[in-house]
Amino acid sequence: MENKNLTSNLNVDALFLGPKSENRVFFQEMMDYALREHMHWRADFHPEDAPLVTPVDQHMPDFRNTLYRTEGILRQLSSKLKTTSVPWFSPRYLGHMNADTLMVSNIAYVMTMLYNPNNCAHEASPTTTELEVEVGRDLCTMFGYHPNKSWGHITSGGTVANYEGVWVARNLKTVPLAMAQHPKARDLVAGFSERELLNMSPAAILDLTDELKKRGIFEEVRSLTARGVGVKKGQLGKFLVPMSKHYSWMKAMDVLGIGQENIVPLPVDEHYRTDVAKMREITFRLIEEGTPILGMVSVVGSTEEGSIDHVDEVIRLREECEERYGASFYIHVDAAYGGYVRAMFLDEENRFMEYDELVKRYRAEDIIPAGVAWPKREVYEGFKAMAEVDSITVDPHKVGYVQYAAGAVCMKDKRIVDLISYHAAYVFEECGDDAAEDKKVVLGASIMEGSKAGATAAAVWAAHRLVPLNIAGYGMVIARGIVTADWFHAKLASAEPFVVGHRKFDVRPVMHPDFHMVDFTFKEIGNDCLEDHNRLNKRMYEICSYASGRTYTNDFLTSSTSLASHEYGDTPAIFVRERGFAASEWERVQSVYILRSAVMTHFLRDAQRFEEYWSELRDIFTAKLAQIVEMEEKENEQLAAA
Amino acid sequence: MENKNLTSNLNVDALFLGPKSENRVFFQEMMDYALREHMHWRADFHPEDAPLVTPVDQHMPDFRNTLYRTEGILRQLSSKLKTTSVPWFSPRYLGHMNADTLMVSNIAYVMTMLYNPNNCAHEASPTTTELEVEVGRDLCTMFGYHPNKSWGHITSGGTVANYEGVWVARNLKTVPLAMAQHPKARDLVAGFSERELLNMSPAAILDLTDELKKRGIFEEVRSLTARGVGVKKGQLGKFLVPMSKHYSWMKAMDVLGIGQENIVPLPVDEHYRTDVAKMREITFRLIEEGTPILGMVSVVGSTEEGSIDHVDEVIRLREECEERYGASFYIHVDAAYGGYVRAMFLDEENRFMEYDELVKRYRAEDIIPAGVAWPKREVYEGFKAMAEVDSITVDPHKVGYVQYAAGAVCMKDKRIVDLISYHAAYVFEECGDDAAEDKKVVLGASIMEGSKAGATAAAVWAAHRLVPLNIAGYGMVIARGIVTADWFHAKLASAEPFVVGHRKFDVRPVMHPDFHMVDFTFKEIGNDCLEDHNRLNKRMYEICSYASGRTYTNDFLTSSTSLASHEYGDTPAIFVRERGFAASEWERVQSVYILRSAVMTHFLRDAQRFEEYWSELRDIFTAKLAQIVEMEEKENEQLAAA
């Protein structure tokens, strides 16, 4: 497919190996290059050193035998992988946020892995530590943070990034309390009540830490924060997280010693975004009753729906709380899934474009074609406001199209790192040069994790160099999935029934997506039992996933989830009603089983190709429904016989 | 070098690419195999699907241009890597616990990465989740745990593994308190004081959880533990960690909300092992004064010295505390570095061999030659007792010879996982088959991290299949470094002075190693100033490390550390005295700078080759000392001129 973007020479099809390994010649050539460069590097290290393994050694029976065993194990592994792996690379896979990954990242990983750097310490990774700093800066810039004042780094994934957000929020929150206990810091918070100390804004606290550093008592005060003395049960108040949250937030409350009971779930609206009115109500109520708010989480790309929270409303709410009550709180955005989408709003100078300018450009360059209304205004505002939050989780291994495992966390104000950083004898280094600060800050002493593969940093770095984090790079790649998701939604919304014998089934989307995830369900026409509906969709999932055995021979693969009242309140009742069930069905069952497709493939962006795809998919769906009907009939026969 | 082991056909030289890429033909062939297998797999997926990228597309200017840009970025990366990477693979590198990594692990990683499985959920990694379960079982078996009753999994590294140890210990500790608060559980702990509840043994608490499960109130009680309600400042008591600890333990106390002030550092003895007498004294004192002990850490392979703690004495101490005071505590072993050494004690049936039998076999098979006294009896007992501790951290990316990042944690009793596990709608799966339990337990819901590369699991799995975790596998590989370290120590202990002009320097080891790490220092003969000694060794490190610029042209590379009183008390004073300094020097300086060599290379195990190596190394040391002398003289001239 020819690239229609006038301002960029990036061809999206040339970024990936392709569903038929179409770019195999290039891929193999570059892998070979990576390998050979490293092998020569080894051989050229001290040419005067004799080889330590000779051809005579290499032809000894036990030597050959060891190589044969190695080969045998690798063949066994290959066979295992081929049998059960999931073909993410194919447009036939529309499930989790998985797709083909960037060739450049795969090759960069392999190239770097051979040198085996460890980004825990600069000493063990002189190259890749610096690449990680660069990656952090790329991401901070994408989010609108000031590149010199902010700080970002790679984590093993969004879960650890979320932990790190809670970690800094928690330690920061206890700084004013610690100051009140230190004789040389007390004057800075004189006259404040405990409640006022617990309600200070993150920015104000960070400014106070500057003063502590000037007075030479920063470390002493720091040792009086939660870091030093532990968490005081209940003191830190509540942590507000949307119901659409990833379960890692529950783990975070446990791990960080805060306790899960201190999460206050925020209800979601009909778009599965945090309900702004209810969020405001809950926040005001907590403040009025004297409960501190440790932090608030906004989700940019909910795991199950891809919904984009109103981040701008959260920022506005905090300002309002500061003005009305003098009460502030920490704000973290969980954009593990949706973070890279912010590239779609940035021009080549990384400037966040005005809405009208953006839409005009989308149309002019056919990034978003006519008929596809993206972005919704509120989604646009949500992304724009990310620049103002305290920290952000983002996963390069999701919409960054990098292979696992590569998460990241970005902090708006890098001074916050001092509240969690550590130093150890063998990791600490003194640096005299200009890059000293960068080198120090990346050490395992400044982040939650310790050892980590420098190869991951290289993989993300290479991706960012090839695919800029703006409209001319990731914007173009991600737009393809967004457009396809919109088309997919439209087809599902208007699809004619599927006929299997005398039975008819229809398919409908749960809602119009904010992004590229389409949730949908099948329903037998005439069925008024929600449990039957759920069973049908669960069966559909089972025969369209790894659960049915080999995924390799499957025609279509997807994922699924349950939208249940204990996580979503009564929001799913809206869809259940639209789907034609009586209100009493939702009351009774309290859960709706849905199919879930993240449309990350860039291959269906061509209108004609998509039509063909949909037509095939209709046939596949019909065949799958027929398979389910047959299964049911068999089961009924067996039941009757028994 | 021919393999002299009579019972195994493993050739150690055939496991690695080699310092001159001696095994390049095989390595390249297998990498090529990995790549081609995957590319064919893609192409063969639904042969009826047409390729989505055609040769015409591929010859478009923007397509070619994108490939050229990709190549340019990869060349740039290669150049960066070659300029500053550290040649771990060479015997010229004796520093951190780094060496060449197993070919089979590197190739397995690449092979698997192309399929991009995510071990967070079985659904996203049907193959590699099972490989991770197998790896966990391998490690548990190596540690002497019951393979069906224990549980192990991969982490990003030792830091996260240590966190997980504290996490389970913390939540477990609060179970009895939670039971006392639950109306339907209260009877099980009737009559216990808070102090008694906080002193229950891990095994007794886990047995109680069985009863809670039977009563159907396990989840309710669990929500009353620290997991649900948070940490209550100070309540959990003290966490005892040797002074030789890795700094991740300080991070752990912070992250888990317990507070760093609740670490009680245990002094080390002259071998840099936890001082048993002082450990006992501190423990008894705490119990007698009514302070609960949350847990105790033993270090198997200290980061700076490779010392092996008396784990057996810790087990004995716990038994004694239970008998004398009815007070118990959790025991975690941090064997991030030394864990794999336990393979040296296991026969081919994974039986921990008797001491005499072991030594006999070492001699008979020339695993440990005459003249090398390994293992010391106390080291042997330390390893043996690991089977009795509650959990263990071990890093495949250290002495498992696997590339970064691969850590692991093992739990003796898998019931403990229920105290930290979670489930989320889109990750939870129902399994009906026999392997159901394994499948469920591996999900991101049962561990601290979330997403993680299935490729890591494959890399460790492949290593374990090729190199068994016993005397015939890892034992053989690791023994080579241990023997070489012993020889290296002997050379350092008896080395004649190095002469540079009219100045003379000697070199001496800090102590005889428990394992394969040799610490040593240079000293100018006649110098009686400890600061000068430290400056000399710091300079030596600087010109023998990445700090001097390109490591590639360096003749010898090592690492370094400071043994300072704030971390080690007065233990380093022993060496300082032996080194000929007055006691007042240690009093004044409080720190000794040392060079630090983990001898992981297997290439110097041949006595003749080692003699040649040492002779070259003497010349290198002399030249390095001359370089330092010259630097000093220049500095003195400049000072005089100024």
Structure commentary:
Two copies of one chain form a homodimer. Chain A is α/β, with parallel strands linked by helices. Among the domains of chain A are: 233-394, Type I PLP-dependent aspartate aminotransferase-like (Major domain) (Aspartate Aminotransferase, domain 2, 3-Layer(aba) Sandwich); 478-641, no CATH class. The first copy, chain A, contains 24 helices and 13 strands. Chain A has helices at 24-44, 55-58, 61-84, 103-113, 126-142, 158-173, 175-181, 194-197, 202-214, 218-222, 226-229, 248-255, 276-288, 311-325, 355-364, 377-384, 436-442, 454-466, 474-494, 530-543, 565-568, 571-578, 583-589, 607-641; strands at residues 93-94, 151-155, 238-242, 263-266, 293-299, 330-335, 391-394, 407-411, 498-500, 503-509, 517-524, 557-564, 591-598. In chain A, strands 2-8-7-6-5-3-4 form a seven-stranded mixed β-sheet, sandwiched between helices. Chain A has a six-stranded mixed β-sheet with strand order 1-12-13-11-10-9. In chain A, α6 packs across α12 and α13 (276-288) packs parallel to α14. Chain A is globular. At the A-B interface, α1, α3, α4, α5 and α6 of A face α1, α3, α4, α5 and α6 of B. Chains A, B: Residues 489-625 form the L-tyrosine decarboxylase C-terminal domain. Chains A, B: This is Tyrosine decarboxylase. Chains A, B: It holds the Pfam family Pyridoxal_deC.
